[in-house]
Write a structure and sequence with these properties.
Length: 80
């Protein structure tokens, strides 16, 4: 995951995808409470890190998807 902040504001979140082309996941990332939407300083910076999901969360999400009639995720990487 790469988070792009401009003047301290999260403007874009992208996946690394296949190493060349990634996906814009800004809307999804904005829902993650632990990721700040604004920084304490008005800096422009790119932050890279890994997104992880526990097996128990993956199983819970798939159960919820089944109950709501949605298809299951194939693996935690796709779900995260």
């Amino acid at each position: 995951m790469e988070l792009i902040y401009t003047n301290g504001v999260l403007v874009q979140a992208i996946t690394r995808g296949d190493g060349t082309v990634g996906d814009d996941v800004t809307t999804n990332v904005r829902t993650i409470r632990s990721i700040p939407l604004t920084l304490s300083q008005p800096v422009s910076i790119r932050v890279r890190g890994e997104v992880m999901m526990t097996k128990s969360d993956f199983d819970r999400i798939n159960r919820e998807r089944i109950e709501s009639g949605e298809p299951m995720f194939a693996n935690p990487r796709n779900a995260a």
